[in-house]
Structure formats: C-alpha cells, structure tokens
Design a protein that fits this description.
Helix content: under 10%
Order of helices and strands: EEEEEEEEEEEEEE
Distance between the termini: 38 Å
Structural class: mainly beta
Oligomer: single chain
Radius of gyration: 16 Å
Number of helices: 0
Length: 153
C-alpha cells in the first residue's frame, strides 16, 4: 500500500502479508485508516494508524471470502461486510456480532448507507456463483443486522 500527498509524492509504503486483495480503504476519526479485503481464509479487516502501521487485524473465515464494505461507526467501532454477512467490530477489532441477513440466497452487497435509525440499507445482487448475475437486491437491517425488509427485482 502506498500513501501519497496531494501532489502525488510518496509519504509511506507498507506491505501487509495477510492481505491478498485490498477492496476498500476508509479514513478513520483518528486520521488513520480501516482496510477491507480478502485472503485465502476469507475476509480481512485491519485498522492502520496515520503512518500505515497495523493497530489490529481481523480475518473472518467463511462466506465467499470477499470483504469490500467497511466503515467506522459513531462509537469508534467498525461495520463490514464479508460475502453475505454483516460483521460489527469493536474499536479493538474484536467481533461484536455477525449476521447473515438473507440465508436462503447468495447475496453480494456492493454499497450501503447508514440509516437514520442506526441500521443499514444495502444494495447488491443475487446469484448462484460469482459474478452473481441475477436479481438486484435492496436490504434494510436494524442496528444489529436483523432484516427489516428485503426487495428483489
């Protein structure tokens, strides 16, 4: 991973052996970063400080091994998605809860927003195997990942 300044000058360069594919990097309130990606075990999340040093890392076995969505929450924790699972992490990276909102279909979530009630609205698609060509999906959960509603098109 390489961090640059606004002019494209390299500030630092780091390697993370446990991370095979980086899917997303999001800034955190402490000027660090939270990273999501995957490796042979499954999904991968890491919290980096402002210099790119690992503060913690969490590997999530299972699902389809693709971790793409991650964001910091108001309480300093993190919420991420691995395959069809929503995973809530404490500020230190330990798992607070894991939910598979739709157990009867293969879902791949591509984007999400935090809802006003503390839950999540996720969009994505369904299908039997990647590339998940099938129906479009909109899912609304409560703050602990339980389904409020799901719409397939």
């Amino acid at each position: 991973m390489i961090r640059t300044d606004g002019a494209g000058n390299e500030l630092w360069r780091r390697s993370y052996p446990a991370l095979i594919t980086c899917q997303r990097i999001e800034p955190t309130a402490d000027s660090g970063f939270v990273v999501s990606g995957n490796n042979p075990i499954g999904g991968y999340f890491a919290k980096l400080d402002a210099q790119g040093n690992v503060e913690w890392q969490r590997q999530i076995a299972g699902s389809n091994g693709t971790s793409g969505l991650v964001q910091q929450t108001a309480d300093g924790g993190y919420t991420g998605v691995v395959g069809g699972e929503i995973i809530r992490l404490n500020p230190n990276g330990s798992i607070r809860w894991r939910q598979t909102p739709l157990t009867n279909i293969n879902a791949l979530y591509s984007d999400w927003v935090r809802a006003a009630d503390g839950g999540y609205v996720l969009t994505g698609s369904t299908g039997s195997i990647p590339p998940f060509i099938g129906s479009s999906l909109v899912l609304k959960t409560d703050s602990t990942g339980n389904v409020n509603y799901a719409t397939l098109d």
